[in-house]
Please model this.
Amino acid sequence: LFGPYGPQQISLPGMLSPNAATIADWNLFYHLGGNGPWIKKVDGVVHGGIDAPEGCKADQVHMLSRHAERYPTSAAGDRMLSLLQRIKASNVTLEGHLEFVNDWQYFSLGVVPIRALTTTGSYAGTLSAFAAGTKLRTRYLSLLTTPPVPNFPLNFWASDCVRVIETARYFVTGFLGLDWDSSSLKTAAAKAQLHVIPETPDRGADTLTPGDTCLKYRQDMQTGHDYGLIQLSKFRSTYLPAIAARFQAQNPGIRFTDEEVYSMQEMCGFEILVRGSSPWCDVFTQEDWLDFEYARDVIHYYRAGPGNRFGPVMGWLWLNATAELLSTGPEATGSVHDGDIMPMLAALDLFPTEEHLPVTRRAASSRAWLTSQITPMNGRIIFERLTCNSASFNTSKGGADSGAAVGHFIRINVNDGIVALPTCASGPGSSCPLKDFLTLVHRRGEEVGDFRTTCGLDADAPERVTFLHQ
Model:
């Protein structure tokens, strides 16, 4: 099973399946484009697992996390409900692959607020966030218990959104225990303090959500925030009409639009997050799901990732603030939205492409940009600073200063898969020497430009992140 813990094998109906051998290895969760439960990154990772390389140990960790599993956003939910209402109003009794819809009930109607964390089923967001905290406590326990022990309370940050704040609170409970907040249990002293950073335009660069503060990004209807939707629409037109035609052949009394078919695919993932499974998943072929997966790659790549001209400059803010901590200070943790993680990855250029993702066809499966594995629900990017003894690195590769007894290196963990920086992987376990990492971040800052200038902000707007500290 795959909740927070491992993969679940989901097979499509035999009548739609290319062959039985493919079905045996098919895991739908890797093709839901961020709409499904947390999954481990398996493509493009360093061989050897997530244990620290021999002779090394982590002495700092910095995590940027997406909120945990949730219900649909209001926009996605409205599309789903509109589709279901139109089906009902048509008085058509559906047949074929959609026959189940005649008796199917929507998974959140009148039960919970839209966009909230899910609280039921095997993949409940509340459970996932708590389990993530417990997992990382186990992994990094020595940072909490081995001298020098950190000063309490530890600081955590979350953007000002209910599902993000809840994710942070459940995570910290798993990481530090029920008594982390002195106000909740009236203990003598708090173990942690959660700082909520407003998602307001006046924050300028001093924010966890630069997409809300970059004025030109929000105003530019062609190459700003909506660029992802524009490119998504182009790619969807390459595969959704054929699916709609397939459904109409089974149900001549109703014709579905591209957007409605896309909503059906979205319902698969979101119902899994609430109920643990979904009949919508069995409506589509593996090719349909590969196209949906890529559609989700396209929207995020062009909305705030490497394909958007604003993405790198927005993402450099958190990246630079974290680089400063890696050069000096202790661990830090922040919870945000997937749309705020993509810019950081664009700034870091962790998943480069030789050319922008095409929208007239599906890119090769070997592509580096895989939204499903980068930002699934509760997806997390962890920067580890490793301290390694001299025997563990080769100074001829720039691993450390000549004659140094120890060296410091940066390793990046993406959903429990170690990903090497394409231009800096000479350290133990394909890590990046700290001094080279800092140089890389500085160079990227010069390349992406000034946040205030690019975003059209006033000269007196905040120019950098100031709240990340312990």
Remarks:
- The radius of gyration is 23 Å.
